[in-house]
């Protein structure tokens, strides 16, 4: 049986930059759950919602072993095939469903293209992540508040995912780049540690419910509340304050 295939993108709203590792492992959402967004495709003009369990079967079937990672789905900005971008840029290390969306952990390849895209992540030039997969099951369309039908995707496949400069949806993003860009905590003064702890206390840790209070942990970088929208990276702010005091 042939199934329709969809491609969806989400922009970067939440992110953190961790200190550990060599900077080649990127954690980011490739799909957002439960939020409605407008779509125009072969099914018409409608609002779509991805169910929180939509990828469970794909994960059980081993998507972490079979899904490929491509920049912009192997296409140019004009949507034409690209020989360069058709090469995988990384390997999935983990794919799991979280309350906010489909979380992917990707180890980027030590290639020229992998290095280039990692730098784009760090520089903030990557605008989102996206996925491509089959539509196996959808709920019956129902009327929506915007005059368009709402279609909820109940089961989806995961053929590939990756970073894109052209996000369309509005509820997920980069949540971690494991790197050594930030000052080691051991080099901070007690005052700087207190400042950092206070900043971290304002944001939930990765995987926590943003509505629940959390204890600040300076070893973890912050994740913004999805309700708050994009804001400045708090760890970078702490480091900027530190550099200003030392200058």
Walk me through this protein's architecture.
This protein has helices at about 55-60, 65, 110-125, 190-200, 235-245, and strands at about 5-10, 15-20, 25-30, 35-40, 45-50, 70, 90-95, 100-110, 130-140, 140-145, 150-155, 160-165, 175-180. It is an alpha+beta fold and about 250 residues long. The chain folds into 2 domains: about 5-175, no CATH class; about 180-245, no CATH class. Strands 1, 4, 5, 6, 9, 10, 11 and 12 form an 8-stranded mixed β-sheet that branches. Strands 2-13-3-8-7 form a 5-stranded mixed β-sheet. β7 and β8 form a beta hairpin. α4 packs antiparallel against α5. It starts with a strand and ends with a helix. Residues about 180-185 and about 200-245 have low confidence and may be disordered.
How do you describe this structure in short?
This protein has 247 residues and is an alpha+beta fold. Helices cover 18% and strands 32% of the residues. Strand 7 (90-97) and strand 8 form a beta hairpin.
Write the layout of secondary structure elements.
Blueprint: E1 5-11, E2 17-18, E3 25-32, E4 37-41, E5 44-50, H1 56-60, H2 63-66, E6 68-69, E7 90-97, E8 101-108, H3 112-123, E9 128-138, E10 142-143, E11 149-156, E12 160-164, E13 174-178, H4 190-200, H5 234-246
Parallel strand pairs: 2-13, 5-11, 6-12
Antiparallel strand pairs: 1-9, 3-8, 3-13, 4-5, 7-8, 9-11, 9-12, 10-11
């Amino acid at each position: 049986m042939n199934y329709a295939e969809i491609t969806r993108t989400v922009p970067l709203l939440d992110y953190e930059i961790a200190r550990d590792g060599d900077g080649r492992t990127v954690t980011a959402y490739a799909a957002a759950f439960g939020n409605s967004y407008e779509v125009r495709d072969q099914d018409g003009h409608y609002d779509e919602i991805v169910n929180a369990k939509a990828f469970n079967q794909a994960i059980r079937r081993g998507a972490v072993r079979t899904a490929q990672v491509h920049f912009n789905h192997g296409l140019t900005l004009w949507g034409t095939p690209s020989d360069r971008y058709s090469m995988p840029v990384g390997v999935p290390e983990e794919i799991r469903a979280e309350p906010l969306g489909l979380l992917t952990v990707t180890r980027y390849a030590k290639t020229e293209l992998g290095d280039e895209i990692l730098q784009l992540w760090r520089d903030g030039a990557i605008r989102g992540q996206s996925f491509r997969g089959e539509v196996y099951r959808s709920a019956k369309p129902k009327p929506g508040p915007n005059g368009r039908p709402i279609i909820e995707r109940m089961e989806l496949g995961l053929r590939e995912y990756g970073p894109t400069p052209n996000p369309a949806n509005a509820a997920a993003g980069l949540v971690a780049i494991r790197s050594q860009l930030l000052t080691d905590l051991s080099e901070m003064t007690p005052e700087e540690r207190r400042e950092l702890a206070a900043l971290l206390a304002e944001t939930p840790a990765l995987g926590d419910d943003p509505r629940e209070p959390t204890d600040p942990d300076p070893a973890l970088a912050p994740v913004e509340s999805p309700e708050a929208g994009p804001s400045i990276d708090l760890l970078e702010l702490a480091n900027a304050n530190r550099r200003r005091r030392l200058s």
